[in-house]
Amino acid sequence: MTWNPVTGCIKISQGCKHCYAERMAKRLKAMGSNRYENGFAPTLHHDLIDTPRRWKRPRIVFVNSMSDLFQEDVPLEFIQAVFKTMVECPQHTFQVLTKRSTRLAELAHLLPWPPNVWMGVSVEDERVVGRVVDLASTPAKVKFLSCEPLIGPLDKLPLSGINWVIVGGESGSGARPMNEEWVQSIRKQCRAFRIAFFFKQWGGVRKDRTGRELNGRTYDEMPRYGKSRAQAATGNVYHAV
């Protein structure tokens, strides 16, 4: 599931160049969706903060797939309200992803960190590796990296304290290529630290043609820590071996 109490965002790094959420927001605005009447400008949806409370069956929820919860345009009080909902819905697992790691680190002590809230940062190339250090400084019980779109090598990731790494190539029009050596390097680093490794896709203009196999297999590992009722219900629990 996705849950978008915030929509819209401001681009801050090369990983944002071909933002899928921006493209989708433009289409939704053209279709007349009232949630996207502002296009991709950051917009708060106060009426959606309580949405997960209505989901009784345990779910894995990607928070703000169409935005970034920790961008400057989102007030601390709004972030705290989102976290309050996540705390009070322990049946769900919430995955929060940000590129604003500096603000995440600054606000972390003002937020609750229950086991069902997984915190991640996007790391597309070596220029933004500092985001990993910021993430590691937080009290989040499960910390993960999204190396997607992977547009450069990441041979020296500071993986201490990290539980999960997702890797994927860029897809869609103008997609930048991903080198297999970059992927293999990250996989080997994950093995050295016994961290769950999830390979999402090779990407490309037609990602359906390139698939998601690496070394003749798929990698669908998930962190063994913080196992929730949502994971138990779906059976999607893996760990690095």
From TrEMBL:
Pfam families: DUF5131. This is Phage Gp37Gp68 family protein. It comes from Caballeronia sordidicola (Burkholderia sordidicola). The lineage of its organism: Bacteria, Pseudomonadati, Pseudomonadota, Betaproteobacteria, Burkholderiales.
